[in-house]
From TrEMBL:
One of its GO terms (biological process) is plant organ development. This is Pentacotripeptide-repeat region of PRORP domain-containing protein. Keywords: Repeat, Transit peptide. PPR repeats lie at residues 23-57, 121-151, 166-200, 228-258, 259-293, 360-394. The keyword Disulfide bond does not apply. SUPFAM superfamilies: TPR-like (SSF48452). Pfam families: E_motif (PF20431), PPR (PF01535), PPR_2 (PF13041). GO terms for molecular function: RNA binding. NCBIfam families: PPR. It comes from the Eukaryota. InterPro entries: E_motif, PPR_At4g14850-like_plant, PPR_rpt, TPR-like_helical_dom_sf. It comes from Aegilops tauschii subsp. strangulata.
Length: 575
């Protein structure tokens, strides 16, 4: 914490004052500590007390003034320096760039720098090229890059300072291109480079991965003379980002050695692609080989447990986390979501209440979403009011949960009030998800005309979720005319969806109109639309078993059906 840092710094100063002799390293160490804390007043006093000030001391003060936004003082300090080195120039350019003074930085390098200082300018040029790239000014970065002479003798450059491009110059310019997705220009530079280092290869692989061109990334990876841990992690992350998880796993399994970031990249890749079994399997393997999970590992595995949901494993992870380290905000938020979706809303509330000052927007949204998931609309609305009193600004996600909660509980007036609060008090433009929840809320309360009016007044085109909500409400209220209209609209938006046909079929079937129900089924077959089989799952002894409708693939299927037949016979006897 800030108070503990201040305490340690005060103790360091007392120790410094008690020292019988102090060398330059001692003075600069304390000076750097003041500068890192932003205590430029104390740093200035110490600087004035120094019996001898080397170039490091001056550079430290220039850095501190720039970090504090005191550009004029930084420039005065730089100009007063009796001796400057290459780091001095780099510090000045970096400080000007970080304070948005890129034009001044370039003017200093290109117009005011004397010839005798040019041997110190290369690092500063590289720094400014990177600064231009960070703000998207790639053309300016390239103009500076082209000002640096191309150098022919790489051996000479390694033994003396010469103002000509070094490998950092090339790599920095390539990064400028890859940052904007211009991998073609980056590749042209890469191919022109007189000498490449590992960072050059990794920059290019990362650039291809960023634009999802994993074919080129993989080809380049295999051409690398000696890929390091970063190279392997880049290629693994790239394949998980385009959904090729098993291809990524192939690279992961071939890695000569794995760091925690490698495990986390692969585990999160499984989780982000919805392969929750893969997430848990790899996490288990990590523990088997003696790996030590960190906060990122637990976040991914908890997210998988929340999505399945798999409460027993999530609870075990919670215990392991508490034994390993104090949960931070991100971990606590993941635990709230996991417990909420796993049916343990009381545990989710307990974690939320324990967070106290650690709560962030995600924490509030997670518990509000948990209440919505459990059909506890009143608690969701109460927590929202508490959130407002705490001064936390809600987002569109907050209101999706609130509207859905009101819809599940049939709280129409409260739902309208939430929608009005979102649009008029917080100025949040309603998205498709909000309209879908609002239509569902109004329609299922029987006000189908009002729901249709909401759809017709939408400033954005209604999608399948909006028409699907309306169709569901129409079939629930047995309004055949509006149901057919909604089904027609839904079929136009999503011709391959079976939902409109199935809902219309069920509407007729419930009323005993079997002929009309058959027509709906025939129309679905004529359009080539197929109903995807649903599936269910059960968590038994820390293993999740999934079943499709009519599934016979489970190894214990005979025993399962025998038990189900017993249940069926018992229920008939009971009735």
């Amino acid at each position: 914490s800030r108070s503990s840092h201040s305490h340690h710094l005060a103790a360091a100063r007392r120790l410094f004052d008690e020292m019988p002799q102090r060398d330059g390293v001692t003075w600069n160490t304390l000076l750097s500590a003041y500068v890192r804390r932003g205590l430029m007043g104390e740093a200035g006093k110490l600087f004035d007390e120094m019996p001898q000030r080397g170039v490091t001391s001056w550079n430290t003060m220039v850095t501190g003034f720039f970090a504090a936004g005191q550009v004029s003082k930084a420039l005065d300090m730089f100009n007063a320096m009796p001796v400057k080195d290459s780091a001095s120039l780099g510090t000045l350019v970096s400080g000007l760039a970080k304070n948005g003074r890129l034009h001044e930085a370039e003017e200093l390098l290109t117009k005011r720098l004397t010839v005798k200082d040019m041997d110190k300018a290369l690092d500063a040029y590289n720094t400014l090229i990177a600064a231009y790239g960070q703000v998207g000014r790639v053309d300016d970065a390239r103009r500076l890059f082209d000002m640096i002479p191309r150098g022919q003798n790489q051996h000479q450059m390694s033994n003396m300072r010469v103002f000509q491009r070094n490998v950092v110059s090339w790599n920095t310019m390539m990064m400028c291109y890859t940052r904007t997705g211009d991998v073609c220009s980056a590749r042209m530079l890469f191919d022109e480079m007189p000498a490449k280092n590992l960072e050059s290869w990794n920059t290019m692989v990362a650039g291809y991965a960023k634009v999802s061109n994993m074919q080129e990334a993989e080809q380049l990876f295999w051409e690398m003379p000696d890929p390091d841990m970063v190279s392997w992690n880049l290629i693994i992350r790239g394949f998980t980002q385009i959904g090729e998880v098993e291809h990524a796993r192939g690279f992961f399994d071939r890695m000569p050695e794995r760091a925690i970031i490698s495990w986390n990249t692969m585990i999160s890749g499984y989780e982000q692609n919805g392969d929750y079994d893969g997430t848990i399997e790899l996490f288990s393997k990590m523990l088997e080989v003696g790996g030590t999970p960190d906060r990122h590992t637990f976040s991914s595995v908890l997210a998988a447990c929340a999505s399945i949901p798999m409460l027993p494993l999530g609870a075990q992870l919670h215990q392991l986390i508490e034994k390993s380290f104090l949960p931070d905000t991100a971990i606590s938020n993941a635990l709230i979501t996991m417990y909420s979706r796993g049916g343990a809303i009381t545990d989710a509330e307990s974690i939320f209440n324990q967070m106290r000052t650690q709560k962030c927007l995600v924490s509030w949204n997670a518990l509000i979403g948990g209440y919505e998931h459990h059909g506890r609309a009143t608690e969701a609305l109460q927590l929202f009011e508490e959130m407002r009193r705490a001064g936390v600004m809600p987002t569109h996600i907050t209101f999706i949960s609130l509207l859905s909660a009101c819809g599940n509980a049939g709280l129409v007036s409260e739902g309208w009030r939430v929608f009005h609060t979102m649009v008029h008090e917080y100025g949040i433009a309603a998205r498709i998800e909000h309209y879908s929840a609002l239509v569902n809320l109004i329609g299922r309360h029987g006000k189908l005309d009002d729901a249709l009016e909401v759809i017709n007044s939408m400033p954005i085109a209604p999608d399948r979720s909006v028409w699907g909500s309306f169709l569901g409400a129409c079939t629930a209220k047995k309004n055949e005319a509006l149901a057919h209209m909604a089904a027609k609209a839904l079929s136009k938006i999503d011709p391959e969806s079976s939902a409109p046909y199935v809902l219309i079929h069920n509407l007729h079937a419930r009323e005993g109109r079997w002929g009309s129900a058959s027509l709906a089924r025939e129309e679905m077959e004529r359009q080539g639309v197929h109903k995807h089989a649903g599936y269910s799952w059960i968590d038994l002894h820390d293993q999740v078993h999934a079943f499709n409708a009519g599934d016979t693939s489970h190894p214990f299927i005979q025993e399962i059906y025998s038990v189900l037949e017993c249940f069926d016979m018992s229920s008939r006897d009971w009735s």
